[in-house]
UniProtKB/TrEMBL annotation:
Pfam families: Omp85 (PF01103), POTRA (PF07244), POTRA_TamA_1 (PF17243). It comes from the Bacteria. Residues 183-258 form the POTRA domain. This is Translocation and assembly module subunit TamA. It comes from Rheinheimera soli. It is found in: Cell outer membrane. InterPro entries: Bac_surfAg_D15, BamA/TamA_POTRA, D15-like, POTRA, TamA_POTRA_Dom_1. Keywords: Cell outer membrane, Membrane, Signal, Transmembrane, Transmembrane beta strand. The keyword Transport does not apply. Gene3D superfamilies: membrane protein fhac, membrane protein fhac: a member of the omp85/tpsb transporter family.
Length: 569
């Protein structure tokens, strides 16, 4: 029981605590002082400091706190200092030399004795000879052994021996742990109940096969895959533990079909596009093969967009599917006026290294006016995109990354009006210095090769400026200009953003940023923007409000207010 108490104290030692207002420590610092302060802080705020009984209680508690982190030979001298309301009990402490581990044995028995995860755990977390005796770390290795056993299917695991002994006179400690994992359990058959989707489609989503060793993380991955399919409203995964390890773990998944039709509406405002109205209509599943349909309409003064997509999965539902997209877009902003019609057939794969590959064939017809130019374009463009994204979770993750590179090719050989190669890339990272400090770095780049820029429709040219580009400049206001000063659009694009965020309170953050870049044809003219912003980690994603100043425009055009909702990368 003593060791258990000491272990709890040692586990708490990592957290700093305010010292007791009536007690002053002298002669100790660092983790030892923190552990003593943490323990004494539990005492009542007001005490009879002159009481011998109280002083003895304090001394005994200090000794317990010291032993928890390896100091068994402390001497403590109490004395009263100050008068009346300012009087304190001063503890002059000589900690003495800490006990060191003379012998450490952490033995893994059973099937886990050859499991690399257990071998690695003991190597990384386990105490070592000559380490200071620390009851909290002793408990930590035991807790992690138990936790790892449960995660990896050793459900009969138990401690054969768990012993921490000390010899204070010799300044030595001894640890001997024997952990018998017993046999490892294996997955059995997986049964789905209540599903409207064919069983073979669901079985293809399993990250494991019957007979493979149990891993709790694979059950979590399965649950995530089912949720991401958007076929089900509820998902309940249960595992029936057999009577012995020779039998396999039967997995039962009870699901409830998703609502057949979902409609989302929204009204918003952007300084770039003004008032906006959005309407999304989705059918998460159309048949028992898991086909789905989605559509989106977004209306604002400068832009009106209607899009629809039909998706049908292949055998591997999560990572292999086709999608047919159709879109119409009307645009009238700055010096651009255009009407676009797009039809695209896409094939998606998830590669072994977690990169997504998308191969597409897109038809684009566009009538346009760009500055002094006008015309139409009829283009057939095969393309390929590689993308990869990751985040640590949450509305505003502490870590995230995104990589994307896309290429489309056009040539008269297959019926296009123009011959060109268009390359687009975007990379970004989010990181954290601590829980209250985040940073964001983002780079954007693009290029059009072979064809003169004046032969391309505006949707394929590059423009910079706006809330996802160079803040401090209005939406797509940066590009080369023609003889009349009208925006022409660019062959090349390169922008960068650097942002620092500080948590003010709860889900509210303050931000400061610097953006730079350009869109150009022959020689880049760099545009810079700086600003301050507010971030709110809302349930539907981060909401961002930025006040930005362009450093390379006339002062009467330099101020911009940007409002946006959605992922930061």
């Amino acid at each position: 029981m003593l060791y258990r108490t000491l272990a709890i104290l040692a586990l708490l030692a990592a957290s700093a605590a305010a010292a007791h207002p009536q007690i002053e420590l002298k002669g100790v610092s660092g983790p030892l002082a923190e552990n003593i302060e943490l323990y004494l802080d539990r005492l009542p705020a007001k005490n009879n400091l002159g009481s011998r009984r109280f002083q003895n209680k304090v001394i005994e508690d200090v000794k317990l706190a010291g032993r928890a982190v390896g100091y068994y030979r402390m001497t403590i001298e109490p004395s009263l200092v100050g008068k009346d309301k300012t009087q304190k009990l001063r503890l002059t402490i000589k900690p003495g030399e800490a006990l060191r581990l003379k012998s450490v044995k952490v033995e893994i028995l059973g099937e886990a004795s050859t499991d690399p995860e257990f071998i690695q755990l003991v190597k990384q977390v386990g105490p070592k000879v000559n380490h200071r005796v620390h009851h909290g770390r002793y408990e930590e290795i035991k807790n992690q052994l138990n936790s790892l056993a449960l995660r990896r299917g050793y459900f009969q695991a138990k401690f054969v021996k768990q012993e921490l002994s000390v010899a204070p006179r010799l300044l030595q400690g001894f640890i001997h742990i024997q952990f018998d994992s017993g046999p490892r359990y294996h997955f059995g058959e997986v049964a789905f109940e209540g599903s409207q989707i064919r069983d073979e489609r669901l079985q293809s989503m399993l990250p494991f096969q019957p007979g493979e060793p149990y891993l709790s993380s694979q059950l979590g991955e399965l649950n995530q895959r089912l949720a991401e399919s958007n076929w089900f409203r509820t998902i309940d995964v249960t595992v029936d533990e057999p009577e012995n390890a020779e039998q396999q773990l039967a997995v039962t998944i009870k699901v409830e079909p998703q609502i057949r039709n979902t409609v989302e509406t929204g009204v918003g405002y952007s300084t770039d596009l003004g008032p906006r109205v959005k309407l999304n209509w989705n059918r998460p599943w159309l048949n028992d093969r898991g086909h789905s349909f989605n559509s989106r309409m977004a209306l604002s003064g400068p832009e009106q967009t209607v899009e629809a997509g039909y998706k049908w999965p292949k055998k591997n539902v999560s990572n292999d599917f086709y999608k047919l997209n159709f879109g119409i877009k009307n645009k009238d902003i700055e010096d651009t006026r255009s009407q676009e019609y797009n039809i695209a057939l896409e094939r998606h794969w998830l590669l072994a290294d977690d990169w997504y590959r998308t191969v597409s064939l897109r038809w684009l017809y566009e009538d346009y006016e760009q500055g002094l130019e006008s015309g139409s374009a009829n283009l057939i463009m095969p393309g390929v995109t590689f993308s990869r994204s990751w985040n640590s979770g949450g509305s505003m993750p502490s870590e995230a990354s995104r990589y994307l590179i896309a290429t489309e090719i056009s040539d008269p050989a297959w019926g296009s009006d123009s011959s060109f190669v268009r390359i687009r890339s975007r990379v970004g990272w989010i990181g954290s210095f601590s829980e209250d400090h985040r940073y964001l770095v983002r780079f954007d780049a693009g290029a059009v090769l072979r064809e003169a820029i004046t032969e391309l429709p505006p949707s394929l040219r590059f423009f910079a400026g706006g809330d996802n580009s160079i803040r401090g400049y209005s939406y797509e206001s940066i590009s080369p200009v023609d003889a009349d000063g009208k925006l022409l659009g660019a062959r090349y694009l390169a922008t960068a953003a650097l942002e620092y965020q500080y948590r003010v309170s709860g889900n509210w953050w303050a931000a400061a940023f610097f953006d730079a870049g350009s869109a150009w044809n022959d020689k880049a003219e760099i545009y810079r923007g700086v600003g301050l912003g507010v971030r709110w980690a809302s349930p539907v994603g981060p909401i961002r409000i930025d006040v930005a100043w362009g450093l390379d425009v006339p002062s009467d055009q330099a101020f911009q207010l940007h409002f946006s909702l959605g992922p930061e990368l």
